[in-house]
């Protein structure tokens, strides 16, 4: 048996041996548990004490990471090694947030940092000009920016613009992703085409949704201004295609193919964010991401935030077999974080084959889902507390909000977050439920009513607490999740940087479109019947 197989077997055995032992009992047995099963670093507190992980489990998880050479693989990734073998590419998003003198970081024998920083400076000059009204629309200073992109060319900046809205003092930013015309129609309604900057964000500049929306935006602008092209900017690796679209070279911000879509908000894809919050704040976010990179490389394994978060994920998904994981930011401005993490985690590690082309030995990425609290409490948390499936939860919460006059809101928010995690772990027994209802019901009715109010408890959660959602903290949080996904991918033997699973649907969409015009296509009877219904035949 390989060392890794032995560690998995050890983890399975530890899990089986712990069947029936409750998480709450671990706290009774060890008054220091909260401190011993949490990591404090960079102003953050990652508490995983409300999980069933104990010292032997943690040791076995750390062995698993060591056997997978996580630390060496992380160093190789950040040094520019080809960690995406199916596409023959490096994955160097960390270079986008590295200081210029941090290198050299070489790809094909060339240090990439001078080019990264040259582009960053061009973005900054452009963002400053837009913010100051020097770069103008044909009707005056820009009031609105529309970012057109999808997947990684949308979710990162859209999530971050919302997250950092207290710092936004530039033009208003809007995001259009869906090919559903409703998205662009609703976004452009009410905007002044003569004072709107359209940013077409697409690594490949071929993505159907983005190109369709970009053409619609250009047609909208053409109705009001003489030269729509000059009110466009492009963020792309495809210089020829951006030129063919008519976007002037000085408005094109390129990046290399070693920036994966879902890892791209740190570079040109973040332009809308930079325009919203300003270059200085954007650099603070980069510094936050870079801090996490250094921490990931340098912190010892048992005090390493990304490694710890990843190992809790491995424990829950691959050892305990929980199929989903809920992300619950108690931070309304992180409302798009679950969607962002869905792409990051599921597009990276939702694979059915290892990098070596074999069937994975364990389930791969869990389904990631979530919503901000407290809203979540009034919808799906019913299932999380009392349903028949265990959903490990990841809470995020800040010590401080941004509005001192609303501190009482924040206290309530935090209390709710802590209460959810506590309730999930503690639960409520039948005898507690009976005692609670004894003055209202009796006999069989008491029994019936009490059973409805039983909470199994022992439901695991992890909480990431941080001082305040500043640009730097957002950078740390996003990079933390990026590295957690990397660690999980390495342990599972997955190439986290390709996404072949999105291709088949794209191909079929192209070949089925003619069916909606009444042309004959090859498809199942169901699809042909639906197409006929939808075209009104
Ligand atoms: O930036 P592009 O090339 O338009 O791609 C957008 C998105 O499409 C995908 O390739 C697949 O959906 C994502 O990985 C990517 O973020």
From TrEMBL:
Function: Catalyzes the reversible isomerization of glucose-6-phosphate to fructose-6-phosphate.
UniProt keyword list: Cytoplasm, Gluconeogenesis, Glycolysis, Isomerase
UniProt name for this protein: Glucose-6-phosphate isomerase
Record field: catalytic activity: alpha-D-glucose 6-phosphate = beta-D-fructose 6-phosphate
Chief location bin: cytoplasm
NCBIfam families: PRK00179.1
HAMAP family, sorted: G6P_isomerase
EC number: 5.3.1.9
GO molecular function: carbohydrate derivative binding; glucose-6-phosphate isomerase activity; monosaccharide binding
Location in the cell: Cytoplasm
Family: Belongs to the GPI family.
Record: active site: 347 (proton donor), 378, 506
Name of the top EC class for this enzyme: isomerase
Pathway as given in its UniProt record: Carbohydrate biosynthesis; gluconeogenesis; Carbohydrate degradation; glycolysis; D-glyceraldehyde 3-phosphate and glycerone phosphate from D-glucose: step 2/4
Gene Ontology process terms (BP): gluconeogenesis; glucose 6-phosphate metabolic process; glycolytic process
Gene Ontology CC, one term: cytosol
PROSITE patterns assigned to the protein according to its UniProt record, in alphabetical order: P_GLUCOSE_ISOMERASE_1 (PS00765), P_GLUCOSE_ISOMERASE_2 (PS00174), P_GLUCOSE_ISOMERASE_3 (PS51463)
């Amino acid at each position: 048996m390989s060392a890794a197989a032995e560690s998995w077997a050890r983890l399975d055995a530890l899990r089986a041996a712990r069947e029936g032992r409750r998480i709450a009992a671990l706290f009774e047995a060890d008054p220091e548990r909260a401190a011993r099963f949490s990591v404090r670093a960079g102003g953050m507190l990652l508490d995983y004490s409300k999980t069933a992980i104990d010292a032997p489990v943690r040791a076995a998880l750390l062995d698993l990471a060591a056997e997978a050479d996580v630390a060496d693989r992380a160093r190789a990734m950040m040094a520019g090694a080809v960690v995406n073998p199916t596409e023959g590419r490096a994955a160097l998003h960390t270079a986008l947030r590295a200081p210029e003198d941090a290198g050299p970081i070489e790809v094909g024998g060339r240090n990439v940092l001078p080019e990264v920083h040259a582009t960053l400076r061009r973005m900054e000059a452009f963002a400053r000009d837009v913010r100051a009204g020097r770069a103008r629309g044909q009707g005056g200073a820009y009031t609105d920016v529309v970012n057109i992109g999808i997947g990684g060319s949308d979710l990162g900046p859209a999530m971050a613009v919302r997250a950092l809205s207290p710092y936004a003092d530039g033009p208003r930013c809007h995001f259009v992703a869906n090919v559903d015309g409703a998205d662009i129609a609703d976004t452009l309604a009410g905007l002044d085409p003569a004072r709107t900057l359209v940013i077409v964000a697409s690594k490949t500049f071929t993505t159907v949704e983005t190109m369709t929306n970009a053409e619609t935006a250009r047609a909208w602008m053409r109705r009001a201004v003489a030269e729509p092209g000059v009110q466009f900017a492009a963020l792309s690796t495809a210089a020829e295609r951006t030129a063919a679209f008519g976007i002037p070279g000085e408005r094109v911000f390129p990046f290399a193919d070693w920036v994966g879509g879902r890892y791209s908000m740190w570079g040109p894809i973040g332009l809308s964010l930079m325009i919203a919050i300003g270059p200085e704040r954007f650099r603070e976010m980069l510094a936050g991401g870079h801090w996490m990179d250094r921490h990931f490389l340098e912190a010892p394994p048992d005090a390493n935030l990304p490694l710890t978060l990843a190992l809790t994920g491995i424990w829950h998904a691959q050892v305990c077999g929980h199929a989903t994981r809920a992300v619950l930011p108690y931070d309304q401005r992180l409302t798009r974080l679950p969607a962002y993490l869905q792409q990051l985690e599921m597009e990276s590690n939702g694979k059915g084959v290892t990098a070596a082309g074999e069937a994975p030995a364990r389930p791969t990425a869990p389904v990631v889902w979530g919503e901000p609290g407290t809203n979540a409490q009034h919808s799906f948390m019913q299932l999380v507390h009392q349903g028949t499936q265990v959903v490990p939860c990841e809470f995020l919460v800040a010590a401080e909000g941004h509005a001192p006059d609303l501190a009482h809101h924040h206290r309530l928010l935090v209390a709710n977050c802590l209460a959810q995690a506590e309730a999930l772990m503690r639960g409520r027994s039948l005898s507690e439920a009976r005692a609670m209802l004894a003055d209202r019901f009796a006999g069989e009715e008491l029994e019936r009513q009490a059973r409805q109010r039983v909470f199994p408890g022992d439901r695991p959660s992890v909480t990431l607490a941080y001082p305040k959602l500043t640009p730097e903290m957002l950078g740390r949080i996003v990079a933390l999740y990026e590295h957690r996904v990397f660690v999980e991918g390495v342990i599972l033997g997955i190439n986290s940087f390709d996404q072949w699973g999105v291709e088949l649907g794209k191909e079929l969409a192209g070949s089925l479109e003619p069916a909606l015009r009444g042309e004959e296509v090859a498809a199942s009877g169901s699809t042909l019947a639906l197409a006929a219904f939808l075209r009104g035949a």
